[in-house]
Amino acid sequence: MTRPDGRSTAQLREISFTPNVAPYAQGSVLVSFGNTRVICACSVEEDVPRWMKQQGVKGGWLTAEYSMLPYSTLERKQRDISKGKIDGRSSEIQRLIGRALRAVVDLKKIGQRTLWLDCDVLQADGGTRTASITGACVAAAIACNRLMAAGKIKDFPISQLVAAVSCGVYGNTPILDLNYPEDKAATVDFNVVMTESGKFVEVQGSGEEAVFTAEEMTAMLELAKNGIAQLIDLQKQAILAADRVQVTALQDLANAFGSGR
């Protein structure tokens, strides 16, 4: 079976992470799954939601917001603010991002503060929710590293990394990491969220006016497992690179001032 972009059934799109794209956030990354591009930023607020104070809940909180920018799709997407409310899809995705990250973050270790994860889709070509989860984890890890470096937290609060990928049945064949043409034509669509230890956080799957067998589901989950293992390796590289990039930038700035340029 030939995929539209020539990939094998078990092949991810080209994945890249560009850290430190939002300098005012404690952690940020531009994540690309092929032509799908999302900026994920982690901002730290030195406060917790009112409900936590009222209920006497210890520790901090982590939450997410997700949006597709108007120019992220072929036809301009209307901003939620112009409609007066967030659309159902965006609301569902941002809750998913929050659940995925809270599954691996010890909220007691972040203290009385809130981690805000903002995921803004610059370009959509399928898999925006999975790219957002994968990038949000990188942004959160970068932010937590910097909180530790600043002495604001004592212990790293992320127990393990988490990532997500799509899979589906396209042309009667299970495939990994669907782009938009594949997603549009797929008869089965799955989104899988897993930790680096191989445990599931969430599985979203349904037939698109179709049904699927247990064998097909098993095949898709195996594709997802292998794909997420690759994504987590790339996440680790991006997290390590983030502070190297920041240090290099600071050194270049110091050299520029020192040389009188």
Describe the model.
The termini are far apart. The protein contains six helices and nine strands, in the order βββαβααβαββαββα. The protein has a five-stranded mixed β-sheet with strand order 1-2-3-5-4. A four-stranded antiparallel β-sheet has the order 7-6-8-9, sandwiched between helices. The longest helix has 45 residues, at 214-258. It has a domain at 15-76 and 87-162 and 236-258: 2-Layer Sandwich (Ribosomal Protein S5, domain 2), CATH 3.30.230. 38% of the residues lie in helices and 26% in strands. A hairpin with a 4-residue loop joins strand 8 (188-195) and strand 9 (200-207). The protein is α+β, with helices and mostly antiparallel strands and 261 residues long.
Order of helices and strands: EEEHEHHEHEEHEEH
Q: How would you sum up the global shape?
A: globular
CATH class of the domain at 15-76 and 87-162 and 236-258: Alpha Beta
Number of strands: 9
What is the helix tally?
Answer: 6
The third-level CATH topology of the domain at 15-76 and 87-162 and 236-258 is: Ribosomal Protein S5, domain 2
> Low-confidence segments, ≥5 residues, pLDDT <50?
none
Query: What is the CA-atom radius of gyration, in angstroms?
Result: 19 Å
Cα separation of the termini: 58 Å
> Average pLDDT, to the nearest integer?
92
Largest β-sheet summary: 5 strands, mixed
Architecture (CATH level 2) name of the domain at 15-76 and 87-162 and 236-258: 2-Layer Sandwich
Per DSSP, what share of the residues sits in E-state strands of 2 or more residues?
25-35%
Structural class: alpha+beta
**Strand line-up of the largest beta sheet:** 1-2-3-5-4
